[in-house]
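Table S2 (text version). Query chain:
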Amino acid sequence: MAAKIESLPDLRARISWIVLSAPDEFPTTGSFGSDQAKNLVAAFALLDDAFPLVEKKIGDPARLAQLRQMLNDALAAYQQGDDIKGAHLLQDFQNAVFPDRFNEYEASKGGE
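Corresponding structure-token output:
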């Protein structure tokens, strides 16, 4: 299994990786196997295991419920063959959890 997500930056990177890999482009070596359906479920299980990081950052129970539903809906979309919807839901989740990620990146590079 892939390494546990232990920080918000790791979560942000892992979401991007899943968007690029799901539903059937996960590596078939290392912690993932050749069964892409299992790899998809495993990738979302990693996100679910990291949800306490989101809870700590967001705090609002109603918003957290929406975010958890977004993850569930994204997985369901991928499993039903709707890759575009799945990717958009994951990106919406990422934007909700990391609304200033582009500003943070620019600031880290010396931009505004």
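Notes on Table S2: The helical segments are 8-21, 36-49, 51-58, 61-79, 83-97, 101-108. The chain has a mean pLDDT of 89.
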